[in-house]
Amino acid sequence: MIASIGRFAAAHRRWVIIGAVLFTLVAGGWGTTVFGAITGGAGFDDPASQSSKADKVLAGPLGRQADDVVVLYRSTDRPVTDPALAGPIQSAVAAVPRTDLDRVDTYWSTGNNPDFLSKDGHSTYVALQFKSSDDQERVKALQAIEEKFKVPGTEVRFGGITAMTEQVNGLTGKDIGRAEMLSVPLLLILLVFIFRSAVAASLPLAVGAVVALGSFAVLRVLTLFVDISSSVINVITILGLGLAIDYALFMVNRFREELAAGASVDLAVERTSATAGRTVAFSGLAVAISFASLTLFPSRFLSSMGYAAVSVVAFAVIGSLTLLPALLHLTGHRINSWRVPMPWDRRNAPPRLEIEGRWYRTAKAVMRRPLLTTLAVVALLIGLGAPFLGVNWARPGDWVLPSSSDARVVTQQLGTDFRQDPTKTITAVVALPGPASGSTGPLGEYAARLDSVPGVTGATVTNTQDNLARITAHYSMDPMSRDARTMVDELRSQTPPDGATAQFTGMPASRVDIVDMIGARVPWMALFVAVVSSLVLFLAFGSVTIPLKSVLLNLLSLSAAFGAIKLIFQDGHLHDLLGFTPIGAIDANFPVLIVAIAFGLAMDYEVFLLSRIKESYDRNNDPGESIALGLQRTGKIITSAALLLVVVVCGFLTSSIAFMQMIGVGLVIAIVVDATLVRAVLVPATMKLLGHRAWWAPAPLKRIWRRVNLAHGDEVSTPTAALVEEPVNG
Q1: What stretches pass through the bilayer (predicted)?
Q2: Are residues 175 and 290 in the same domain?
């Protein structure tokens, strides 16, 4: 079937290319409206958690008591109580429209409350609570009134959860543009270096550009059916570009091999689609399955990431299997034109076929001591992952922003210059068996017990409504610290009044709920990915041994990335180089995303390598020789693909958001480890140990596999040529 798609695309190449160009233009226009269509907010919370349920109750008649935004005023030359400043500040605040605001508190409106005045008297803040309980609606409301707070002679900064969300949203679009401006020119240079031909280099980049812009249209369509988290766009667009270039790289390389083996252009396109195209399809399926596991998580951020990623991966596969054959046929033998000479090339030396080159010799060397090599690499990867055992989990907050951002500065100044940070509150929603107004005594006693919990600096009943009561507690420690988790656990362990139930919300409580939810779902995610990926690999290769080996090696390769992330982002190593301030914790969403993305990419390279090993094994029935030939035919191209993907992923490292930097560092390390230690060393060693058993399956399963006919789904003769290499690249 894949060969048929390639034949159709090649036969109708002009219409396919015209359609792709028109689609890209539409995607570049309508698709980019996705930034304004995202209504799902950040979506980090678990809707079934205690904190989310409490938030829903507080959104009703009981009401919230939370400072969504803290507007911080500071003067360097005079106290803010000086009439020359106090008057303009009060006038500015009074002029702010109250349409979307529930509460506005200032030093003056609270009867000169000293909590609103800094210790040196040069700073004060205005606490805002919006009517809406939706974070994106609050962001829009803040943007509508932000300018009203400006007062000449003062430095005005905006902090709090809503201001943090607004600032993250603002950086997201800038980060995408900067990442693409840096990566695309470098990708073109690397592709020219890899292919030695400007024409060949342009094809993966062309497909990548179509997929990258098309991803916006795919996401825009998704917003019509599901809420998409505002944090998804960075990850999805960059990965869409990287995967499309990866897939195109493999197919262009195979097309050049077929031409070098003497095939006509028509036959070369057909064989490329039947072999590399089929591998791209299976690889894309494996990657999509890995991403689909994110939908097992109830938080909107992870589930919408899963929906979006699966859609974009499918789009990347479709683009590679349709647009690329059309471009390949249109290019034909000109694919090697505009050759770019390298200083080390022999003059006028034509490309040659290399069978026993560098990668072949590497595989042979590894297979001479396969058990020792396997044990050494496994021990190394486990050792690199060992630091991860001391991880402390966090949830996204203002710590993801640059240290110079308003939200970070406000949090720092509230913590050091003021008596109390008004944003550090935990709210208890108490449901009583009878009217709350008749339970003031028991409620007061319960609030006193909450006040006695270490870390709590005050807890009082702040509202009652029917049988519901709201208790607001202030706390002193970092909400992402281990002490904050202990505080939440102790608060929840306090016994409420007889017959009553209590639910807690606030940053520390939601952090505990997110971490617990992810911890409970990760085993199911791992089981889903392992089982379904194994099924895909069985369908691809007809073996039950290969899937088990692949899953274990791919999970093992992630350990180095996890260990490095703990050392860098929790312990603070290299924080000056990357430009972030460590908080002694790692976002709990990180391992889930890295497992989904890196495991999918590892499967990507695994399928490409095993496909070429299986081709050789089917011809010579020699396990060792087929491993060496398979690595020779894919080693250079997998390394090149990994390098290109690293360049794309490095776009995350340029992000101003620490969470995106975590993803970038984790993926770069995972890709490098997988493309070197795992693919070039561990796979040949373990495959040698398995020998013929690598392709074993029980007879009934083997018969089913042959009946399905996935071994040779396209009736196209296979070439006899080996990998096309440059003279210097043995």
Answers
A1: 181-199, 206-226, 232-250, 280-299, 305-330, 371-394, 524-544, 551-569, 589-610, 637-657, 663-683
A2: yes
